[in-house]
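stage 2 :: seqdesign
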């Protein structure tokens, strides 16, 4: 077995590598988006806490 045959995936390379690429994109998004949402939520809560402390 050589690398050229492996990378060509028996003639299905476009389908296989596209599927792998989409899988990686989805996994990265499933990791990054919740972290960004958490950071935004914490900022929002911190602003609300500061606003509420200033009113009392």
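stage 2 :: out
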């Amino acid at each position: 077995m050589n690398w050229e045959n492996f990378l060509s995936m028996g003639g299905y390379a476009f389908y296989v590598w596209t599927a792998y690429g989409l899988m990686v994109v989805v996994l990265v998004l499933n990791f990054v988006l919740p972290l960004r949402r958490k950071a935004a939520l914490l900022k929002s809560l911190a602003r609300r806490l500061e606003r509420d402390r200033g009113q009392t």
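stage 3 :: structure notes
- The mean pLDDT is 92.
- The CA atoms of residues 35 and 41 lie 10 Å apart.
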